[in-house]
Design goal:
This protein is an alpha+beta fold and 461 residues long. It contains 11 helices and 10 strands. It has helices at residues 43-51, 74-83, 141-152, 216-219, 240-243, 245-271, 280-284, 297-333, 353-386, 390-422, 426-446, and strands at 8-10, 24-28, 31-35, 116-120, 133-138, 157-160, 174-185, 196-211, 224-232, 276-278. The relative contact order is 0.17. This is Lon N-terminal domain-containing protein. Residues 1-24 form the signal peptide.
Length: 461
């Protein structure tokens, strides 16, 4: 079974495009935001994690919180952690001490028998998973040096760790091991703007113990080096719990429970006709086994990550929908453009003052509404990455699947309550029917240019 985005059924009913163009750009303050985009990628997640402001604090009973105080109630924390893995927000995952303004401990030797000294390459707010492949463009002098070093010493590998969303120079304690598979020298073609284009495969996870040269973070004259312990995820895990008969039986039970939870989620997604939903075929071919092969759980973990990205993009498009309609009307009325003449991009200064204000307000609204979704998705993947063994990963993934099912169940209940109240009188029924008719007409019109991944038996192929 091969993982692909076709495992997701994405109905882009909220996307309005400029004729054949798929995206337009509006810039302000030297930054560019993509509008009208329905492409699947991590680029938006990277932009959001980098550029959005401080994390909003939610209430005690929210699924995601930022906790700033250092006073903990151990008993309360224990109960919350057992019920909700992300109850402490960013503090729910493990972080190394910050390297900002820090100095090395002067101990260059290894402090653990099973550890190694490895280069560290922090790559923002993206969480990578074992058995995935990635291409990096290398341009910074310190990372040019890093690639030269790993080529010269023959190791051809380094650690990638997620950066803290709000603290500079602080990295997740669990990262992944990138192994270099192919490298192309492109300095001549790019006027030395980019030195290398490199292909990598993630072969395992790394537990980071300490940063050996934290002062390099400030000086930027070389790359960071860490002491870490590698867990090879390219083969099936030889965990003590899994190797015993009790471990095998326990894993089989957890694997079955995850498949059942995933099937329940798919059914309610289709019942509510969610804009982003899994195909039914994906539930029948769900990968839940140990290791990172084609039947391994990491395939499903990446599938869940892409689902979160697709849902984020759908919400982004929904927030932009009203602005897109006004922008098209402005271009047609004020500029006299026809549908075929609409541009693929327009500068911020070319907008009317009213539209400029709307762009700025849209930026604020997206920061408020989307950043918690980006952060929660990222922390979810990091929490799964930290799991000690296959059983713990199964339990975590099932927890997040069941949490999404509960959210949709609540949505279904509220929809039933409001639809029932609107049918109380003849006038309410007429208005409700009128709204449904108008909504259906809009969906039919907006779905014409969209791409629909059909519910086929080979949805993963």
């Amino acid at each position: 079974m091969k993982f692909s985005r076709e495992a997701l059924l994405f109905l882009s009913t909220v996307t309005i495009s400029f004729s054949s163009f798929t995206e337009a750009f509006v810039s302000w303050d030297g930054r560019t935001t993509t509008f009208l985009s329905n492409r699947w990628s991590h680029s938006y997640v990277t932009w959001a994690a980098t550029n959005f402001g401080p994390t909003p604090t939610r209430t005690k009973h929210s699924r995601l919180r930022m906790i700033e105080d250092d006073v903990d109630d151990d008993e309360e924390d224990f109960d919350e952690d057992a019920a909700e893995p992300l109850s402490k927000g960013v503090r729910s995952v493990s972080w190394l001490p910050t390297v900002a303004n820090a100095k090395g401990d002067g101990v260059p030797e290894l402090t653990r028998k099973d550890s190694e000294i490895l280069p560290l390459f922090p790559l923002g707010g993206i969480v990578y998973t074992p058995n995935s492949e990635h291409i990096l463009n290398i341009f910074e002098p310190r990372y040019r040096q890093m690639y030269n070093d790993i080529l010269m010493n023959g190791t051809k590998r380094f650690v990638v760790s997620m950066s803290h969303p709000s603290e500079s120079g602080r990295f997740a304690q669990t990262g992944v091991l990138f192994e270099l598979e192919d490298l192309k020298e492109v300095s001549e073609q790019t006027a030395d703007q980019i030195k290398y284009i490199c292909n990598h495969k993630v072969t395992g996870r790394v537990k980071l113990h300490r940063v050996l040269n934290p002062e390099a973070w400030q000086s930027r004259d070389t790359y960071l080096r860490v002491e870490g312990t590698i867990t090879d995820d390219s083969v099936k895990e030889g965990e003590s719990a899994s190797s015993s008969i009790y471990g095998v039986v326990g894993n089989a039970k957890e694997e079955k429970a995850l498949k059942s939870a995933f099937s329940d989620l798919i059914e309610i997604q289709h019942e509510l006709e969610e804009d982003v939903r899994f195909t039914r075929a994906s539930g029948m071919t769900l990968s839940v086994k140990p290791g990172s092969g084609e039947d391994g759980l990491w395939q499903t973990i990446r599938l869940w990550q892409s689902f979160a990205d697709q849902r984020l993009m759908a919400r982004q498009n929904e927030l932009q929908r009203d602005f897109q309609e006004k922008l098209q009307a402005f271009l047609k009325k004020e500029r006299g453009l026809t549908e075929e003449e609409l541009p693929s991009a327009i500068g911020f200064d070319d907008l009317s003052p009213a539209l400029q204000v709307e762009v700025q307000e849209l930026q604020k609204r997206m920061a408020i509404e989307l950043r918690p979704l980006v952060l929660e998705s990222t922390l979810t993947m990091q929490k799964v990455l930290e799991a000690e063994n296959h059983t713990e990963r199964l339990q975590l993934v099932r927890h997040f699947v069941e949490a999404e099912t509960r959210r949709l169940t609540t949505k279904k209940t509220l929809r039933g309550v409001f639809s029932g109240s609107s049918m109380g009188t003849g006038e309410g029924s007429d208005q409700s029917e009128k709204r449904l008719t108008e909504s259906k007409r809009k969906n039919e019109n907006s779905s014409k240019p969209s791409s629909i991944f059909t519910d086929e038996d080979d949805a993963f192929q």
